[in-house]
Amino acid sequence: MNRIARHLRNVARRKGSLLLILLMINIVLITGTTGKEDGKLGEEDEDFGWNDEEPPPDDNSQDGGIPLVRKEEFTSNQLYAEAYQSYIQALAYPARLVVRPDSSTVVDESKISFFCRADGNPLPSVIWRVNGKSISDHNRISIKSLSTGLSTLRFERVSVDDNATVVSCSADNGVANPVVAEASLTVIPRDKVPTGFPQIELHPSLKSVEQGKTAYVSCRVRGDPRAKVLWLRDLIPLDIRQDGRYSVSTIGNPGALMIQHAREEDQGKYECIARNSLGVAHSKAANLYVKG
């Protein structure tokens, strides 16, 4: 019994699907739900072993060297209880921030978005704060979150009074202490915009496309250093690396979005964002409709 518990505890530390299989086997051994005679293993279970090495003979073992575990042993053995706790800890892991909000510089009277993505098991909740306080100005500030842990905080209209604002994103799933990331907002007057600051030369416009066809959403950006482009749909960033149907032009009309084989879920409100080392610029938003 102790040998089994020690081995299960060691395996638990490695995490992985093998541990789940082992626990399932143990439950079968304890409850005797295999449909076989009590204390017997079903034929389908004999291929699973708890040890890489052949165990020594045991008076309480079936053929194959797998010891039987009685219910009273499961509940009273401290070593086994510790192994089970290791199993639970192996499944759960603390919250972490996969995407952290970036400090940004914007022009007065423009809009800005901050992005945060949390991961963990269980999936953490994401909490936004502005200057250490909960969001209260819902006329200017909005939040859009997905069940995947991705969240966007949007300032619709910034002013010079927002300069030096600190935005924080925290994630907490109860496994360990919450994790927090901060970003600062810099707002510059329009008459002091530096040369090379990102600009949107062509904004997205209303589009309608038939399902299965290719959709083109316009956006042309300029900046020095050359501006990078991020697309949003309904305030949520599009990860073009995860869907081969999406691509962003880098020549001719730099920033334009192409969506191949348009689907109903592609429908929404699109914006493009241009960013370089000097700052960030948001385009106007435009709807894309996909006709069935």
TrEMBL record:
GO cellular component, one term: plasma membrane
Gene Ontology biological process terms from the UniProt entry: homophilic cell adhesion via plasma membrane adhesion molecules
SMART domains tied to this protein: IG, IGc2
Extent of Acidic residues compositional bias: 43-61
Transmembrane annotation, as ranges: none
Protein name, per record: Ig-like domain-containing protein
Region annotation (Disordered) ranges: 36-66
Swiss-Prot/TrEMBL keywords: Disulfide bond, Immunoglobulin domain, Repeat, Signal
Organism whose genome encodes this protein: Caenorhabditis nigoni
SUPFAM superfamilies from the UniProt entry: Immunoglobulin
Signal peptide: 1-35
Pfam annotation, one family: I-set
Ranges where the Ig-like domain occurs: 94-186, 198-287
